[in-house]
Design goal:
Length: 515
């Protein structure tokens, strides 16, 4: 290998080692190119051999043209001669078809033609080569990229007017290319080429062999069928550069925020372009389409479903409850020892009225319940009046009276222990139970022995008169075991009833209304 070749390759290796390798995953595809190159064929020794004496005289001029001189026969044996061949430097050209892989490697198919005159012989050495190359690219700057590599192929080496031979050739190379644009590349490179076996030329019994070794410097252009990645990049074209884009690969046309992520107007974690349920309430759990979860598939999302385990196929109201299911109207409280609704209770019942008005095919029963403090008859009467008070309010809010029934259950259906204050608070409640659509609803009359306290009077509505209040004696007679001290009686209308969970031992599904 020549001193020039070793020096050139050393420079290429040093330059490449100082650069980082190209690793643009999206930068891949086909390219084509062309080049002109200045070729130097290294001087070589040609060896000629004549096999028969009679031919010697005929071949002297040709051998002389090759610098082998006249041959003298040696008693019929082969006669040989050697001569140094020198070649002129000249221009050649080449074309390439390549493929750049994602990363630093390029594979390339190259066709090259060279022609160099043989000094003083009136002959030329013509070489046509097809090479398969593999190049390794480095990144010196964004646009300037050195490379090294090599190739293997076949060359047809011809001495004009004498003969030609096909030989295997190999080459080593290095170079640097510069991106004029994302697709147009300027390439300058060096190649060292050598035949792995010597070309042989045979004519009229004369055989000539000579080594082939050359080097050339090329300048060419290359056109990529892909965009090179350098400078400020925006791979997904969303208007946010890749160095700032926290959501690469956004589909074309999708609106994004300042960090390149698709807009999510309701902040449910599903981008607007995929969200089939826009404007989901804040904090609501959603599925992959951005719609709120509906665990029992009753058409009412879990966040609004007061009866989340409704059996499949059951018709439900707007609150997700179906036939024979009930909910506790949490927060529906009353004045002390009275059926008079508190202001907070009226606000909650406004929501209940809205639910009933949006579910006109359902009838409901309003159930009043108390704790065990006081006599049975007292508790029965109080629970009835409170249920009736709730009904009257709902009727005044536009709910049809025929769809509502009011019934007091007194202390008969506790959902917690009456031995603790917390348990008694849970037992003092009003429930809404769903009846089948179209059921006839009616108010059952109170027992004869029930009575109403003066504070229990509820202003009746026109279409649903309140039950008549029994006259109260100055000192009502109550049996010893039924008497109680009003100071010991817990206020059934505590402004804030403590929250409680569903009790599976209860006779109905007691679920917070949650309004």
């Amino acid at each position: 290998m020549s001193t020039f070749l070793r020096s050139a390759l050393s420079v290429g290796v040093v330059l490449a080692s100082a650069a980082g390798y190209v690793n643009a995953e999206d930068e891949k595809g086909l390219y084509i190119g062309g080049n002109a190159h200045y070729t130097e064929v290294f001087d070589t020794t040609a060896k000629g051999a004549v096999q028969t004496a009679p031919q010697q005289g005929l071949l002297d001029p040709l051998l002389g043209a090759l610098g082998l001189g006249a041959l003298t026969p040696g008693g019929g044996t082969a006669t040989t001669a050697k001569s140094n061949l020198e070649f002129d430097k000249d221009w050649g050209y080449g074309v390439t078809l390549g493929y750049k892989f994602a990363g630093p490697l390029r594979a390339e198919l190259e066709y090259r033609e060279d022609s160099n005159n043989i000094d003083g012989a009136g002959q030329s050495l013509d070489v046509n080569s097809i090479m398969g190359n593999l190049w390794y690219d480095f990144s010196l700057t964004e646009r300037l990229r050195p490379y090294i590599g090599g190739g293997l192929g076949m060359s047809n080496v011809e001495i004009s007017s004498f003969g030609d031979d096909d030989v295997t050739t190999a080459q080593l190379g290095a170079g640097v290319y510069y991106h004029l644009s994302p697709r147009l590349v300027l390439d300058a490179g060096y190649r060292y080429v050598q035949a792995l076996d010597d070309p042989e030329y045979t004519r009229s019994g004369t055989k000539v062999t000579a080594e082939y070794e050359a080097q050339h410097v090329a300048l060419g252009v290359r056109f990529n069928f892909f965009d090179a990645k350098y400078g400020v990049q925006d791979a997904d074209g969303d208007g946010v550069t890749d160095d700032l884009d926290q959501c690469p690969g956004t589909p074309a046309g999708v609106q994004v925020d300042s960090v390149g992520c698709p807009l999510d107007g309701d902040n449910d974690g599903v981008a607007d372009y995929l969200d089939q349920c826009l404007n989901t309430p804040a904090g609501a759990e959603v599925d992959e389409q951005g719609c709120e979860l509906d665990g029992d598939n009753d058409g009412v999302v879990d966040a609004n479903d007061m009866c989340p385990d409704t059996p499949a196929g059951t018709a439900v109201m707007a609150n997700g409850c179906g036939q024979d299911q009930s909910v506790v109207l949490r927060g529906v409280n009353f004045e002390f020892n009275s059926a008079q609704l508190t202001v907070n209770a009226e606000t909650i019942l406004d929501g209940v009225a809205s639910t009933l008005n949006s579910s006109p095919d359902f009838d409901v029963e309003l159930q009043g319940h108390t704790d065990s403090m006081g006599s049975d008859s007292y508790n029965m009467n109080l629970s009835q009046n409170r249920a009736q008070s709730v009904k009257n309010y709902l009727v005044n809010q536009g709910v049809e009276s025929r769809r509502l029934s009011a019934r007091g259950y007194g202390e008969e259906q506790p959902i917690a222990s009456n031995d603790t204050e917390e348990g008694r608070a849970l037992n003092r409640r009003v429930e809404l139970k769903v009846l089948s659509a179209g059921d006839d609803v009616m108010v059952e009359p109170m027992a004869d022995d029930t009575y109403m306290m003066e504070d229990d009077v509820v202003e009746p509505v026109a279409e649903e008169p309140m039950m008549e209040e029994e006259p109260m004696m100055e000192e009502p007679a109550v049996e010893e075991e039924e008497s109680f001290n009003e100071e010991d009686y817990l206020d059934e209308s505590a402004a804030e009833e403590p929250a409680y969970d569903y009790n599976p031992e209860s006779s109905s599904d007691d679920i917070d209304y949650g309004l």
